[in-house]
Amino acid sequence: MTHAPVTTPPAIRFRSAAEAAAALSLATPAGVLLLSTPGAAAWPGAAVVAAMVARAAAAHPGAVHQAALDCGSAPGLALDALRQGWRLLVLDAGHPAFPAVASAAEEAGATLLPQAPPALDLSRLDLRKPGGRAILARHLAEG
C-alpha cells in the first residue's frame, strides 16, 4: 500500500499541557503540529491528550495548530480515538489492520498517518530557560 505524503506544520512531541502551551506561545503563522508521545493513545489515553491540547489552546487562542494522537501499533485505540473526535492520528503502517483503520478514518473525515512526522521532542529541552525556548522557537520558525 502506498501512502501519500501529508504536509504538516513543524511538529513537536509533547507530554504535558505546559509543553504544548510553550509551543503554541512560540508558534509562527504557519502553525505547529502538537504530536503526542509515541503510543499515547494507550497511556495517558486519547481523552487526556485531547484535554492537554484544549488547555494549551485555551491559553493561546490565536495560535494556529493541529494535534495528532500517536496510536503506536494499536488499531483498536485508533478507532476509539476516531469515535472521540480525533481527526489526525498516527498508526504503524505495518500493522495488518492499517488499511481498515485508514478507511474508517477517511469515512470520519480524519487523516491517518503511517508514521509520525519528524518532530522536536520537548522532553529534551528545559523550557524554563531561554536556551530551551530559543531552540523551540528556531525549530518552529525553520519548520
Question: Overview of this structure, please?
Answer:
The chain is elongated. It is 42% helix and 17% strand. It is an alpha/beta fold and 143 residues long. It has one domain (11-142): Aldolase class I (TIM Barrel), CATH 3.20.20. α1 (17-25) packs across α2 (41-59), α2 runs parallel beside α3 and α3 packs parallel to α4. It has a six-stranded parallel beta sheet.
- Tally the helices: what do you get? 5
Distance between the termini: 28 Å
Q: What is the helix/strand order?
A: EHEHEHEHEEH
Poorly predicted sequence stretches spanning 5 or more consecutive residues: none
How many β-strand runs? 6
Classified by CATH, the class is Alpha Beta
Would you tell me the structural class of the helices and strands? alpha/beta
Compile the SSE list and pairings.
Elements: E1 11-14, H1 17-25, E2 32-36, H2 41-59, E3 65-70, H3 75-83, E4 88-90, H4 98-107, E5 111-113, E6 119-121, H5 130-142
Parallel strand pairs: 1-2, 1-6, 2-3, 3-4, 4-5
Helix pairs in contact: 1-2, 2-3, 3-4
Compose a concise summary of this entry:
By secondary structure, the protein is α/β, with parallel strands linked by helices. It has a single domain, classed as Aldolase class I (TIM Barrel, Alpha-Beta Barrel). The chain has five helices and six strands.
Which key phrases capture this entry?
alpha/beta; TIM Barrel; single chain; six-stranded parallel β-sheet; 5 helices
